[in-house]
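note to self: dont lose this again. the chain is below, predicted strucutre after it. 154 aa total, dont forget to put it in the shared folder this time
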Amino acid sequence: MTIATTTHLNFRGTARQALEFYGAVFGGEVTLATYGDFGMPAGAPGADEVVFGQVENAEGFRLMAYDIPGASEGAEATAGSTTRENGTTVTDRTFFQSLRADSLDELTGYWDALADGASIVEPLAASAWSPGFGMLTDRFGVTWVLDVRAEFAG
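---
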C-alpha cells in the first residue's frame, strides 16, 4: 500500500494569493476553482473566493488551500503565534508545515523565497541535528519548519 499526505490550508480570503505565492516558491501547476465556478451566484459575497485550490510539482510537492466561506471580512488571518525563547519554540498553533531538503543549497532557495514578507522565528543555520534548520511564519500566517535531511548513525 502507498500512502501520501497533503496539507490543506484554510484561508480567510487570501487562498488565491497564497497558492500563487507557493506556486512561485515551489514551481509546478496552480489549479483553483471558485465558489462561483460551483454554482454560487456571480454577485454573491465570496463567489470569487477559492473553494478548491492546489499547487503540485513534478518533485512530489503538493499543497491544497481554500477560503473559509464568509470568513474574509474582519477576521484575523491565523490563530496563534510562534516564537523562540531561550532556545525553545513557544507556540499555541496546532501545526507547522515541514519542508525537508537533501542539501543546504536546495533548502536555502526555498528559505529565501518563503522568507519574502515573513516573520523569522529561527534563522536558517546549522543546528545540533541538521546542517541547516530554520523556522518562519510566511506572509500568509503559515509557520514553516525547514531543515536539511541529516544522516544519523544508528
